Write the structure tokens for this entry.
Amino acid sequence: GRGRMMAGSPSSSGSFTSPVLSIKKGEEIVDLIDLFSKIQYRAKEVSPRVDAVEKRCLELFGRDYKYSVIHNTNGEVCGHYPRQIVYLEYECMDSQRDRFQSSVQISKLQDLVNRSKLARCRGRFVCPVILFNGKVWRGSDDTWTEQDEVLEEDSAARNSESQLFDKVRGHDIKLLRYLSVRYICDLMVENKKVKFGLNVTSSEKVDKAQRYADFTLLSVPYPGCEFFKDYKDRDYMADGLVFNWNQDYVDAPLTIPTCFTPNLNIDWTEYQSWDLVVQTQNYLKLLLHIINSDDESGLLVHCISGWDRTPLFVSLLRLSLWADGAVHASLQPAEILYLTIAYDWFLFGHMLPDRLSKGEEIFFFCFNFLKHIVSEKFSAIRKDRGSVTSLSSDFSLITEETGGGVAGGGASSLTTDVAELHPRCGFLSERQARLEAVRELFLAAYSSTVGLKSSAPSPSGAISGLLEQFARGVGLRGTNNIV
């Protein structure tokens, strides 16, 4: 998967921020976020507008990969998964397109999916999402009703039901093995959670029968979507925002195999004191390290329902690897942004209208966070540090290291964590230029659709003026006022 890693870079395909392209591609992102902010995707209720989004995703995947499709036509496998689930098989140049030979028995995979879905919440199942370095890397959500807690109390009367759960979990494990998953990363802060009156759990880590003993399990607890209301209420400032680990329901420990800790230079014992920026950075470094350390095995990332934390890290991984030229090598910034919003968030069921109504802005956090991973420390590829490129747009974004005030808002806390425009800053690393181009497009589109809502009058004015100016800078016009 690394042979073409620089194809489609700014230097080989021209400027990726030309004004005409920015406007056209930017409007496509605006339309997508506008749709996403109004409806939650359901596979059995697909409008022509949603159908067009699905087709666009397939087209974007097909630019760089040959793929098979797991069929979920009317949501019969899972109502909150895409109707056509893409199984990326291998990278494929245009000249190779007519010679595709599938490396997977798609009928067997479809059968395993149908059998294993009963093991996981709402029929969700382990799902391949990213192909990196010749292997499939999968993000998924992982949970089931923990009925065997009840069953074991009355094993004589309920023996058949207990055997059924053994069988169902057996199918789940068969699917994991078929997909070559070895590493399972659990983002839940709870060992168990009550949902819909049932105990549910991500339960490889509390599976009494040790059915998942052959897998390398990591418990890396990360705050759920509710915590991101605090992020919004602090005027979208993640710096200094620390999760309260002393809450009653928080009982999942941080557990990382020692084989992954020596090379990262991270003091994991301090994780409860990390703010949201440092915690997200360190978890991303860990995931990148895992997928870089084993060329044969896949990584499964999951939380409780797979609607918030899972797409956050899948999206950050996809964008980080793309910025290195390691995945989706031919896609431009607007195209990779479209793909990850549409596929990783929208088509996998993130409930953006609900989250926005509650102020739980984890979706915005994801793309605004890109400025915190521009460093080569987050690169999966060790490149020549002399590789630089220049943004040709009239504006580019400052990174978190740069200070300064915002006109109208003074030295507001918003200056480093929402967006600040400044004249072209010259040469950037290619990774930084690519990620900033994606973030730039996102902020402009978000500001002209959803908007940012501040808790205090003065910063609100700063946000509004700032993002309206920002949208104009990339050729977009706001469709509503930001309040």
